[in-house]
User: Fold these one by one.
Assistant:
Number 1:
Amino acid sequence: MIETIVLLVVTLSASLTLCWSAKPRKDTEWQGEQAADMAGGLIIAAAAIGNLWLQLSGNESAILLLDSLAWYAALPLLVSVRVIQAAQCLGFNWYWDRMIWGRILLALCVVFELCRRSNQLDMILNVTSVMGAISFLIIALRPCPRPVLIISSVLWIGISVAYLALRPSEFIYLLAPLVIITATRLSKKNYDTSG
C-alpha cells in the first residue's frame, strides 16, 4: 500500500510538473499545444488525487471514470500533441489553437465511448503507443539529433512494447509515459525558445 501511495504521489507530481511546464511564458500568448498539455496533465492529476483518496479512504466513487479519462483521453491527447510536434519537425505548418485542441479532446472522449461499447479499449492504447513511438523518434532526430530526446524515444518504444504485450490497467502504470512526456516537454523547452 505504501508503494502504491508513493507512486501515486510521484504521478501527481509529474502531472503537475507537466501542467507547470505548459503554462505560457510571460508576455506570450497561450498556444494550443500548451493548453492541450495542461488539460492532459490536469486530467491525470485529478485521477491521481482520486486514486490517492481510494488508497487512503477505501471510497471507490468515481475512480473508474477518472482512470478511464486518464488512460483513454488524457494520454491520447498528450500523444496527439507529440504527433503534431513531429509533423512540425517534418515541415508541416500545423499550429492549432486551444479551441481545436478542445475539440480533439472531445473527439477522443467520443472514441473512448465507442470503443468501450464495442469492447475495443485496447485499440486506443495500441494506437496511442505506436503513434507516440513514431512521434518521439521524429522529434528526437529532427532537425538535429538530441541525446535527451533520443533516450526519451527509446524509453517510449520500450514502454510501447510492454503495453502491447502486458496490457496494463492499473492507474500507476500511467506514470512511465507521463514522466517521459514531461521530461521531453522540459527538455524541448530548453532547446526551444518558443516553449
Note: The chain has one domain: 2-191.
Number 2:
Amino acid sequence: MAVEGLAVPLGYVIFLLGATVPIYIAFGLIGLTGFREITRFQSHSSFYYRLNPATKILALFLIAFSMSSAGLWLGLAATLLILVSYFTLADGPRKFALGFLFTVALVWATIWGSLADHISFILSNGPPGPFFYQELTRAIAGDFAVSGVFLLALILVMTSTPSAVVRALRKIRFPNPVTFSLVVGMKSVPSLLDTINSTVKVQFMRGFGMRASKALWPLYTIAAILLALIPSLILVLRGARNTAISTGTRAFGAYKTRTYVREPTFGAADAVTIVLAAGFFVAVFLT
C-alpha cells in the first residue's frame, strides 16, 4: 500500500523532471541565438550545399516516411549518422553541438513523459511484463525517429536559400501554393527569431530578471519571450505586405514556366543521396 501511495507523486516528480530539463537545455544552453543559427542559411561549399534542393526534399520525405516504421537500432543509427554529418556544415562543430542539444532535449522530453506513466503503473501493479519493455522500446524508437527527421529538415533550411528552393520546386512542377508557403516559412522563422531575440535583450537591458539567480535565467527567458511574442508577430506580419509586393512584382505564378539566371543542377552527389535515401527506405520495410 505504501508503494502504491508513492505512484502518483513519483509520477509527477518524473514528469516535472522530464519537463524542466528540456526547458533548461532549450533556453539555457541553446538559447535564441542557437535557434537562429540552425534556422537560417549560411554560405559554404561542402556536400550538402552542392545538392539540389529538390534532392534534399525528396530524401527528407523518404526518410521521414521510413523512420516511422524503423526499429530502435536502425532509427538510432540513422539519427546519429545525420547528426554526425552536421560537422560538414558551415561552423560544423558549433552546429553539431546545437544539433546534439536539440536532440537530447527532444528525446528527453518525450521519453520521460512515457516513463512517468510506466513507473506509476509498475508501482501500482507490480513488476512489468514483456509488454512493458516492448512499449518502452517502441516509444524510444519513435522519439529518435522524430529527432532524426527534425535534424534532416534543419539541414535543408541551413544549406538552401529560399530562392534555390523555389527554382527546384518549380522545375519539378510542385504546386505554387505549397512552394510559396514553404518559402515564406523559411524567410519568416529566422526574421521572427531575430525580432524576439532583440526584444528579449532589450528587456534584460532594462532590468528584467536582474535580481534573479542564474539558475532561474531560462525561466526568465521564457517569460521575456512570451512578453515579446505578440509585438514580434505584429512586426513580422507587417513584412508580409512587402513579401506580397515582391512576389507580385516578379510575376510569381503568372506563367506555368519561368526562366532563371542560374539553372538548378542535378549531379552525381544528388544521385548518390537519392540512392542512399531509397536504400534506407527499402531496408526499413524489409526488416
Note: DSSP finds ten helices and no strands in the chain.
Number 3:
Amino acid sequence: MKKPIKIGLLATVFSLSASFSQAEIGITDACQEQVDELLEKINDNPDDYTPESRAKAKKHLIAAKAKRVEARKCRRHLMNARKELRKGK
C-alpha cells in the first residue's frame, strides 16, 4: 500500500518541478537574446566604447551565456556588462 503513495508523490513532485523549469526557459531565452543583441552592438560599434570596457563587458556576457539555466545569474551578468559599457563610453 505504501508503494502507490510513493509513486503518486514522486509523480506530483516531478510534474511540479517540470512546470517550474518550463517557465524559466522563457526567462532564460529572453536573457540570452539580450546577451546576443548586446554582443552584436559591441561588435558593430567598437569605437563607441573603450577597449577595456568592451573586454569587461564581454567577460560578463560570456558568464551570462554560461549561466543560461539560472535566469537570475544571467540577468545579473547582463546588467554588469551594460554597467561596464556605460563606464567606458
Note: The radius of gyration is 19 Å.
Number 4:
Amino acid sequence: MRAVGEEPIGPMSLPSSLSQTLTDPQHRLAVLLGIASAPVTIALSWNAVTDATYIAGGNLSGVVFVVVGLIAGYVYHDRAVDRRDVGIAAGVTASSGLIVVYVANLATSIDVSSPGFTALLLIATPFLIVLAGAISVVVVMVSTVICDRIAAVRSWRAEAGTMSETSPETARNGVTLKRARLAYFGIVPVTVVYVFALDSNSIIGGLLAVLLLLSTVVLAVIVIVAMYKDAERLHEQGVSWIPNVVAYVGFPVAAFVIVYSIATFNAWDAPAAIAQYGFLGVLWIAVVVYTYERRQSLENSQHRSSH
C-alpha cells in the first residue's frame, strides 16, 4: 500500500508495485474476490470462444468487473486502506478471466484466418491483453471508489439524526449543485424534443443531436458528482438532513439495467443507446425530486432551529 507523500511510481517500478499491492495482507480479500470472479467472466463470455465470427477477444462481458468493484468498495468501506489499491488488487486478479477468454478465442480465430492476419493477431496479442487488462483494472478501481463513497453517504445519513439543525447560510450554499441541476433540468427536454420530434437526419442536424446527447451525458455526470459533494458538505457542516444519494443515483442506474435487458431480450438495435435514454430520463425525475426534498427538508430544519 502506498504511503502518504510517497513519490510517484516510475515505469521501471510498476511490476514491483503491482507485486506489493497483490501481496499486501490488507488486500487479500480483494485478491480472492478478483480470482473468484474469473470463472464468472469466462462463463458469460464463452460464446466468444465457440463462435468463430468473433475475432481475437470477441464479445467480452465487462459487467463482472463493475460488480467486483462495487463489492470491494462496500467490503473495504470502513477499513484504513487506499481504495485505489484495493481496486487495483481486485482488478488485476479479475482480469485473469478476461485473458483466458481472449487466448481461447485467439485460437479459434487463428483456425479460420489467413496466415497474414494470423501473424498480425499474434503480434498484437501482448499489446491487446495489456490494454484490456488495464481497462479492466480501471473499471474495477472506479467502481470500488464509487461504492466506497456511496457507503460513506449511508453512514452520514445514519449520523444525521444526532446532528444540529440547518443554518440559513448552509441551505444557500451549493452553487455548483444548483447550476448543474438547472442546466440538466433544461437540457433534457430540449434533447428529447430535438432527437425524437424534430428532423435530425441532415449532417448538421445529426451533429447537433450528438452534441446535445453528449452535453446531456456530461451534465448527468456533473449532477451526480455535485449531489455527492453536496451530501459531503452538509455532513461536514453538521446538518441534520443528508440527501439519499444512493436512491437518486440507484434508480437511474436500475432504469438503465431494466431498459437494457428489455432491449436485449427483444433483440432491438443498440440496446445500450436505448438504455441511456432510460437512465437520463429517470435521473431528470430524480433531480426534480431531489430539488424539492432538499428545499423542504432544509427549510423545515431552519424553521425548527428558529424556535
Note: The two ends are 50 Å apart (CA to CA).
